[in-house]
Amino acid sequence: MLQQRHLAVDMMRSGLDRRRSSMRILIAIPAEVVCPELSPRHHAALVRDISLSGAFLYSGFTPVLNADITVHFAVPFAGRRVRVTCHTQVVRVEKSSQGGATGFAVKFRNHDVSVIH
Predict the structure, then answer these.
(1) Is residue 14 within a helix (H) or strand (E), and if so which, with residue range?
(2) 0.90 cut: is pTM over it?
(3) How would you write the pLDDT of the chain (117 residues) with one tens digit per residue?
């Protein structure tokens, strides 16, 4: 029994990246990103995973490292849809080698939440 518990703990630990400050939740939700310093347009994006401290997104838009980006998305919560606006900083950019969407990680600075009726 003790051996099974140790095995379960080892499996859980192997799925966590020790560099991260909080656990990530894998999710695929549409988003919109805005970076006024690089482009006045709103760009479509997809949130791949999210945590309390940040998120990883894919988009046709390629931000630069340390850029300030606003991310908008909606999530279901208690039977309603909640719109979340996060003010973030780009901490990693992963360009696709085959011309696909750019992946980028953002760190949350602050956020606003409102219920969509």
Answers:
(1) helix 2-14
(2) no
(3) 444 444 444 444 444 444 556 788 999 999 999 998 888 899 999 999 999 999 999 999 999 999 999 999 998 888 899 999 999 999 999 998 888 899 999 999 999 999 886
Where would I find the beta strands (DSSP E) of the chain?
A: 25-35, 39-50, 54-59, 68-77, 80-94, 102-116
Pick from 72, 51, 68: nearest CA to 114: 72
Domain ranges of the chain: 20-116
Classify domain 20-116 at the CATH superfamily level: predicted glycosyltransferase like domains (2.40.10.220)
Q: What are phi and psi of 21, to 5 degrees?
A: -85, -15
